[in-house]
Amino acid sequence: MIKVGNQYSSFKVADIAYFKSEDGLIFLYTQAGQRHPVEYTLDQLEEILDPVDFFRINRKFIVTVDSVAEIHTYFNSRLLLRLDPNQTEQVIVSRERTTNFKRWLDL
Q1: Which candidate, 87, 71, 72, 78, places its Cα nearest to that of 19?
Q2: How far apart are CA 36 and CA 97, in angstroms?
Q3: What's the whole-model pTM score?
Q4: Residues 6+ apart with CB under 8 A from 2
Q5: Phi/psi at 65 (nearest 5 deg)?
Q6: How far apart are CA 81 and CA 72, in angstroms?
Q7: What is the pLDDT of residues 41-84, one digit of tens each?
């Protein structure tokens, strides 16, 4: 259950693609490309979400395995991701999280 506005909505883990911070607000993106504002910070979500299913790749994103469509090496020991649904901005795994991200993906 995620608080969306004034109500709680139920989302199946399989339906969630990622969470993204945009202009101080947090949005849940579904696999279908829908975007829903949530009333949690990424820090709070990181605490309540199952780390088997979700990984915080940087200050702006918490992703699921199923949302990672492509992984490319990027300079300075980082990774560049293409997410599904796609993002217009570059999605980069921070250098500090790259090793744990690869371990999480079993790479």
Answers
A1: 87
A2: 26
A3: 0.91
A4: 8, 9, 10, 11, 28, 36, 38, 40
A5: -60, -45
A6: 6
A7: 999 999 999 999 999 999 999 999 999 999 999 999 999 999 99
